[in-house]
């Protein structure tokens, strides 16, 4: 059911420092910071030949990554995103298999303008999984 790895999201408390690591130390192609107030984060996209890394910094009060950064002050992998051809079919298949879909199960429009859903980490090897319709 799942297809390509769309991105790995890394939560960071200092986006400028994290961007410098990826740009200067690792020599990657990085975007300008992109504030996404509707998602409570500012994102820098790191473009790799086969996938993307997204550096996420909290934006505003009640950011969804604030708690994660309190538990992981040095930052860390927050979620991984897999592409699926049909997000509603994927949701229904996973729910039928007993997996927990976060929120009310209605896909939201994610950072790339496509519908996304998140799956409970306890059902997926301790990893928060995002599904994005390809
Ligand atoms: Co994501």
Question: Explain this structure to me?
Answer:
The protein has helices at residues 15-25, 66-71, 87-96; strands spanning 5-11, 29-30, 34-36, 41-47, 52-58, 76-84, 108-109, 115-119, 129-133. With 134 residues, it is of the alpha+beta class. The protein has a single domain (5-133), classed as 2,3-Dihydroxybiphenyl 1,2-Dioxygenase, domain 1. Strands 1, 2, 3, 4, 5, 6, 7, 8 and 9 form a nine-stranded mixed β-sheet that branches. The chain is globular, with a radius of gyration of 15 Å. 24% of the residues are buried. The structure holds cobalt (II) ion (CO). Cobalt (II) ion (CO) binds next to strand 1 and strand 6.
Task: Detail the topology: elements first, then pairings.
Layout: E1 5-11, H1 15-25, E2 29-30, E3 34-36, E4 41-47, E5 52-58, H2 66-71, E6 76-84, H3 87-96, E7 108-109, E8 115-119, E9 129-133
Parallel strand pairs: 1-5, 6-9
Antiparallel strand pairs: 1-6, 2-4, 3-4, 4-5, 7-8, 8-9
This protein binds cobalt (II) ion (CO).
By DSSP (H or I, 4+ residues per run), the number of helices equals 3
CATH class: Alpha Beta
Mean pLDDT: 96
What is the count of distinct domains? 1
Rounded Rg: 15 Å
Shape: globular
Strand content: 35-45%
What's the architecture, going by CATH? Answer: Roll
Summarize the structure in short.
By secondary structure, this protein is an alpha+beta fold. The chain has one domain (5-133): 2,3-Dihydroxybiphenyl 1,2-Dioxygenase, domain 1, CATH 3.10.180.10.
Offer a few descriptive terms:
single chain; 134 residues; alpha+beta; 2,3-Dihydroxybiphenyl 1,2-Dioxygenase, domain 1; nine-stranded mixed beta sheet; 3 helices; binds cobalt (II) ion
């Amino acid at each position: 059911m799942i297809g390509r790895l769309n991105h790995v999201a890394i939560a960071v408390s200092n986006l400028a420092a994290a961007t410098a690591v990826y740009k200067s130390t690792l020599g990657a192609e990085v975007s300008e910071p992109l504030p996404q107030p509707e998602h409570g984060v500012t994102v820098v996209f790191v473009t790799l030949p086969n996938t993307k890394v997204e550096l996420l910094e909290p934006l505003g009060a009640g950011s969804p990554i604030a708690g994660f950064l309190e538990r992981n002050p040095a930052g860390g992998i927050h979620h991984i995103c897999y592409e699926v051809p049909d997000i509603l079919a994927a949701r229904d298949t996973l729910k039928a298999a007993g997996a927990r879909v976060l929120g009310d199960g209605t896909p939201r429009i994610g950072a790339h303008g496509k519908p996304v859903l998140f799956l409970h980490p306890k059902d997926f090897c301790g990893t928060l999984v995002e599904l994005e319709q390809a």
